[in-house]
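Weekly structure sync, notes
Attendees: PL (lead), two postdocs, one rotation student
Agenda item 3: pending single-chain targets
PL asked that the sequence for the first pending target be pasted directly into the notes so everyone works from the same version. It is reproduced below exactly as submitted, 304 residues in total.
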Amino acid sequence: MTTITKLDGDWTAPATASTAKEAVESLERGDVLFFPALSFAIEAHEAGLFSPAILSSAKNASYDPSTNRVGGTTTEGAELERLRGLMARFSDRADAFVRNLLPSYRGNLQRARASFRPAEIAGRASSWRKDDTRLHVDSFPASPVQGRRILRLFANVNPSGKARSWRVGDDFERVAGRFAGRLARPMPGAAIVLRLLRVTKTRRSAYDALMLQLHDLMKGDADFQAHSPQTPFDFPAGSTWIAFTDQVSHAANAGQYQLEQTFLLPVTAMSDESRSPLRILERLKGRRLTSTPWPSPRSSPDDR
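Predicted structure, written out during the meeting:
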């Protein structure tokens, strides 16, 4: 069962060796790291951005730190530059924080996109597949990760003090085991066709295909949603939290105004890659699911 682990944190100071060790162990175990006093400050000139009206899509505005591009927004001119500045500052701050907190990952972390979610989650119209109020694990349909871990940092920046209400679920191996018999390997050549049709940006591995199926099976199973082990937790305004969201079953029930930053991490950079969704699904299915090599005998769970 996922637990919420409270830690102290500072945006710029390196973590102590003991904190860094605890953070890695907790994350790889499938817990959520919670920093109740780690608040991301919003500057006065950015207050006008706190409205769902800035969105051109139903969900979020996005920021790509590799190109400095902002998407998903109706803002233009000076307002667009304010949004870009806000998201770039948050992305830089999140990147520095994660690298200081998790120094063993530092050389292998890839900073991906950041997002700003000014819309209220509760009551938002959505298809069941895109409904984030249902328990799920993260998988990217258009951007295959090829077995890499999805690490996300979230900050509740709600100016009215409203919490971000989550539910967290059961251990990944138990969840995956529940649905394993319904997870089917993709048809031969399917990944090539999806890439040629530009449905995916890179080739979708068997692992990515199975994780997408697991995501959909979890969201579409009413009994699982209602009766699987799960715990509600409110992340207050002014707090920050981190999780491997490809591993932690999670759902966001309510909340408005959240910033988040995504990172990708190769499984080989983990302290114990046997805990990764890739290795768990490979054990359940009895076969390799990406081109990433299997762990050497020295790295097997029995030797740790």
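Discussion points:
- The domain at 4-41+51-290 is CATH 2.60.120 (Jelly Rolls).
- The radius of gyration is 19 Å.
Action: rotation student to compare against the earlier draft before next sync.
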